Input
Amino acid sequence: MSMTATVYYALAFAFCTFVALLKWNEVRYRRKGLPPGTMGFPLIGETSLFINQGPAFMKRRRSMYGSLFTTHALGSPLIVSMDSELNRYILMNEAKGLVPGYPESMKTILGNNVAEVHGAMHKRIRGSLLSLIGPAALKEYIFPKMDKFMRSFLHNWNGKTIDIQQKATQMAFFVVLEQIVENEPISFHESFEAIFENIFLGTISLPFNIPGTNYYKGLKAREEVNAILRELIAKRRASSVTHDDSLDRLMRNDGSKDKLNDEEIIDQIVTMLYSGYETVSTTTMMAVKYLHDHPKALQAIREEHFAIQQNKKPGELISWEDYKNMTFTRAVILETLRHANVVNGVMRRTTTSDVELDGFTIPKGWRIYVYTRETNLDPFLYSEPFTFNPWRWLEKSLETHNYNMLFGAGGRVCPGKEQGICKISLFLHYFVTKYRWEEAEGNKLLKFPRVFAPKGLHIRVTKY
Ligand code: HEM
Output
């Protein structure tokens, strides 16, 4: 055989293999009534397009197949829903077999997490969480602690160049840890933070339990967290000293018929630390960025906070009424969530039977990505959607409209919403009244699948 013929056959073979691989997934997952779409290569599917092109990939697919389409990403077949009405329907109808469908790694590392349980079990765990993190607890005893924490966390930044992403992450973590276990030394907080970072990274990685992988480290970190918390629980049981924190509240829940056992207490603590961690820190970082880029909004937020300070004696704490008067700050936070798309969407899966959606049949056990990003940028809901305009949220009905899914919707709507907004508001209160800041050069931001500055977001801070 001549050289030319060899090359020809090799190319033909490569081409046929390519087509066969491309068809493999299509054939493997073909079902009657499925939404249209493509499935990519075996195992990897279209993961790289999905992650690297994100929003552009979604839009292209929508123009080809409509607002409900099929793909294969992150290790399994996936239905993507981009229609606001349908997204709302999915979130409001968990009872029809549309339950949370977060990745395997989250399930194994986070344990019996609220997002993993359904029906009566969900009601019980969510109820216990709400009593710890919901608006009543926030107002009654979390708020003053939070204020004290922010005040000391934000002192002494004058003249420094800081990575606001790192600071916001620390803030979001420490403020919750302080709520859960008061009076532990700073060394406890720091070592716990380092372990928890591995838990977080483990939950967003593929579940390959091989030494060296983030998943493996995440599982090990979870074991460490369990050991630390078990020791803390034992220490508290052996002592007569009481504490004004969530761990004591969880342990004291004696009279209730829904008393949690130790493993459930530990799961609740991990959920509290995990749930608001990334959303709060990313929103804080992006609010700082947007305020820097929009001087009018910065001026308006400063005026709001200086007006609050004017009525206070030096050192006087912020009151709940002061917080409720931070209406422009709330608008900045909601606009930041919308404009930055801090939450691009939430995951669901069908349970034990096929589910009808919009005339299509979603097979049992398949995942659905309820993609809410497009709703955040819908010009019918938000005029000039690509403009950062916090003033739009001063129109009260915008926050409560049916398609605002910044905090989810239905039975899973975020129980930490008020707490998250409150943390960021208090952070901004001290930040904008104490400091000015300039962005350092060279910052880079990624927007999908999560908002993230790979090398940090550096700012130079000076006294205001
Ligand atoms: C800016 C801040 C926050 C945003 C944007 C946010 C967003 C969300 C969203 C979109 C969901 C729905 C998830 C789904 O339907 O699958 C959710 C659920 C949840 N969030 Fe938040 N969240 C924030 C802060 C917090 C905080 C501070 C906490 C706790 C201290 C928290 C605890 C939870 C929990 C436990 C759930 C699960 C509820 C359930 O499954 O019943 N969140 N959050």
Notes: The first strand starts at residue 68 and ends at 73.
